């Protein structure tokens, strides 16, 4: 370990041998940090927090503080962060609550920019980009490959499906289906994330089927239940690119953006 002499690391913390901890950082007793991770200066990591391998946490972050929930009564809830994440300056991630699963979870290979807030019980997938000042209220779920533009705010209990994307300063009050791009306050749909799909290796036929699914949801005058049934039927024909819709429909409960 390379621990700056001004850092305060509780002797009960579990820190891998090659972890670096910068000046004036504070690491609590119930924290574990796995190998290859770098903790910058002036970082506070507290609570029951587990940080995986090869993460980079920049200065002035607060990870694992108690949830901002009036019902919280000191229960030993958790924050879990996976591997290969970049967490930039002034980010705040809170632990979970017993009213949900008791854990706030961040996956792997995420790029999280400055001033991002991830509230209690959020479930953040992998390969996600959260631009500066994106804010997640409690119990939000983000699927893999989501991109949230700067200053995007997401209401509590909202689900954002895989590969979805929001524009700058979007205010998201209902669920965003997989692949859908959204903008505005309140956020409304504006097509599919075709460029992101191209960058991830989707074929033209796969993109066409996703675009057709979007049209089924938003352009054919169908009720939500009718559109959902049609998309699930096509997904049942073995089109793997439609599986994110299947997963989204299985979780969504708030209604979708319109």
TrEMBL record:
The lineage of its organism: Bacteria, Pseudomonadati, Pseudomonadota, Betaproteobacteria, Neisseriales. Belongs to the transferase hexapeptide repeat family. LpxA subfamily. GO terms for biological process: lipid A biosynthetic process. The keyword Acyltransferase applies. GO terms for cellular component: cytoplasm; membrane. Its main location: cytoplasm. It catalyses: a (3R)-hydroxyacyl-[ACP] + UDP-N-acetyl-alpha-D-glucosamine = a UDP-3-O-[(3R)-3-hydroxyacyl]-N-acetyl-alpha-D-glucosamine + holo-[ACP]. This is Acyl-[acyl-carrier-protein]--UDP-N-acetylglucosamine O-acyltransferase. The keyword Lipid biosynthesis applies. Pathway: Glycolipid biosynthesis; lipid IV(A) biosynthesis; lipid IV(A) from (3R)-3-hydroxytetradecanoyl-[acyl-carrier-protein] and UDP-N-acetyl-alpha-D-glucosamine: step 1/6. GO terms for molecular function: acyl-[acyl-carrier-protein]-UDP-N-acetylglucosamine O-acyltransferase activity. HAMAP family: LpxA (MF_00387). It is found in: Cytoplasm. It comes from Chromobacterium sinusclupearum. Transmembrane segments: none annotated. Homotrimer. InterPro entries: Acetyltransf_C, Acetyltransf_C_sf, Hexapep, Hexapep_transf_CS, Lipid_A_LpxA, Trimer_LpxA-like_sf. It holds the Pfam family Hexapep. Residues 175-257 form the UDP N-acetylglucosamine O-acyltransferase C-terminal domain. It is an enzyme of class 2 (transferase). CDD domains: LbH_UDP-GlcNAc_AT. Its EC number is 2.3.1.129. NCBIfam families: lipid_A_lpxA, PRK05289.1. Keywords: Acyltransferase, Cytoplasm, Lipid A biosynthesis, Lipid biosynthesis, Lipid metabolism, Repeat, Transferase. Involved in the biosynthesis of lipid A, a phosphorylated glycolipid that anchors the lipopolysaccharide to the outer membrane of the cell.
